[in-house]
Amino acid sequence: MAIPATAGRPFDYAVPPPLAGRLRPGTPVRVPFRSRTATGFVVALAAESEVPRERLRPLLEIDPATLPVAPPVVELCRWAAAYYRCGLGDLLKAALPPAAARGRRTAWIEALPFDPEALPPRRRALWAALRESGPLPVAEAVRRLATTRPTLRALAAAGAARWEEREGEGEAAPVEAAEGRRPALTPEQAAALEALRTALGEAAPRPVLLHGVT
């Protein structure tokens, strides 16, 4: 767990059974921290910890008021925290979309404890996927789970999910890896790239000035 406004390595917590299988890097989680409750971000999952099991405190819940950080962004923040010697929790918090959506109501969907056998096969699979993902903005759930808003509303009407409007919470834009061929470099670009690779491979990296980069 990486918690904003803290320094040093991430903190280890135990995953309680209700959250098993619902966490991934970037999931915002409420945790007991010192004498208070804090929101942090999952940065890794492991079967074992260097902290003795009896000293591990359990996570409390997935924080429904904080947007998740996409796993590729988590990896970028981990690299930046190590390179620039700054707090990973602060970087993850800064990576969230700006609070431009304050004052706007956003629809969220969350799976509820339910007997999946009472659902048709397709909605049963949708309920399982939603349970695994944790609470999501409806627009993101439609994209990520390849479904529709009416289908999600029907799932909520059946009692298998909770649909609610939340104040002041935006929706995270999906982060997708670029596909396709890499662009061909000009001879000048290829020479510059080779110089950068050489500099980065040295034991003591040195500054490199790039001309014409915008």
Task: List the keywords.
alpha+beta, GIY-YIG endonuclease, three-stranded antiparallel beta sheet, 6 strands, globular
Overview of this protein structure:
The chain has 214 residues and is an alpha+beta fold. Among the domains are: 80 residues, PriA, 3(prime) DNA-binding domain (GIY-YIG endonuclease, 3-Layer(aba) Sandwich); 66 residues. The chain is built from 6 helices and 6 strands; from the N terminus they run βββααβαβααβα. The strands form 2 sheets. A 3-stranded antiparallel beta sheet has the order 2-1-3, with no helix packed on it. Strands 5-4-6 form a 3-stranded antiparallel beta sheet. The two termini are 36 Å apart. The relative contact order is 0.13. About 4% of the residues have low confidence.
Quick description:
With 214 residues, this protein is an alpha+beta fold. It has six helices and six strands.
Question: What layout of secondary structure does this protein have?
Answer:
Elements: E1 28-33, E2 36-41, E3 61-62, H1 71-84, H2 88-94, E4 105-111, H3 121-133, E5 136-137, H4 138-145, H5 149-157, E6 161-167, H6 187-200
Antiparallel strand pairs: 1-2, 1-3, 4-5, 4-6
Strand content: 5-15%
Please bin the fraction of helical residues.
Answer: 25-40%
Number of helices: 6
CATH homologous superfamily heading of one domain: PriA, 3(prime) DNA-binding domain
CATH level-1 class of one domain: Alpha Beta
- CATH T-level topology of one domain: GIY-YIG endonuclease
**Helix-strand makeup class:** alpha+beta
Task: Give the biggest beta sheet.
Answer: 3 strands, antiparallel
Instruction: Give the overall form.
Output: globular
Which spans of ≥5 residues are poorly predicted at pLDDT below 50? 170-178
The strand order across the widest sheet is 2-1-3
Average pLDDT score = 85
Beta strand count = 6
What oligomeric state do these chains adopt?
Answer: single chain
Radius of gyration: 21 Å
Order of helices and strands: EEEHHEHEHHEH
- Reported CATH architecture of one domain: 3-Layer(aba) Sandwich
First and last CA, distance = 36 Å
